[in-house]
Automatic annotation (TrEMBL):
Compartments where located: Cytoplasm
NCBIfam families: PRK14126.1
Claim: Cell cycle is one of the keywords in the record: yes
Protein name as it appears in the record: Cell division protein ZapA
Domain of life: Bacteria
Lineage: Bacteria, Bacillati, Bacillota, Bacilli, Bacillales
UniProt subunit comment: Homodimer. Interacts with FtsZ.
Main location: cytoplasm
Organism for this UniProt entry: Tumebacillus amylolyticus
Length: 98
């Protein structure tokens, strides 16, 4: 019996080559988003692999994940900082109308 909470129509699939390996990637994101994610991972792994040619696949993958996580955390912090600045600007300008 199918799970009533899952909708297979919501799941997209793509085939991607990441660091020379074939993968089928499934997710609820759009096909374009899944492709962009695969391209980002492939690019990051190639960047690390070219800079460190002696690393095996697992180490390249872990270092790529660490790099992407670091970039994500930095962007999230910048986003939160911008939201705070926007909120402060709205509070300061909220009472003024022309």
């Amino acid at each position: 019996m199918k799970n009533p909470n899952s909708n297979s129509a919501d799941v997209n699939k793509i085939k991607a080559v990441i660091y020379g390996q074939d993968y089928q990637i499934k997710g609820r994101a759009s096909v374009d988003q899944l492709r962009m994610v695969a391209m980002l991972v492939d690019h990051k792994m190639k960047e690390i692999g070219e800079a460190n040619p002696r690393l095996d696949l697992n180490r390249v993958a872990v270092l790529a994940a660490v790099n992407v996580a670091d970039e994500y955390l930095k962007l999230r912090q910048e986003y939160e900082d911008l939201l705070r600045i926007l909120e402060q600007a709205q509070q300061l300008g909220g009472g003024e109308q022309e």
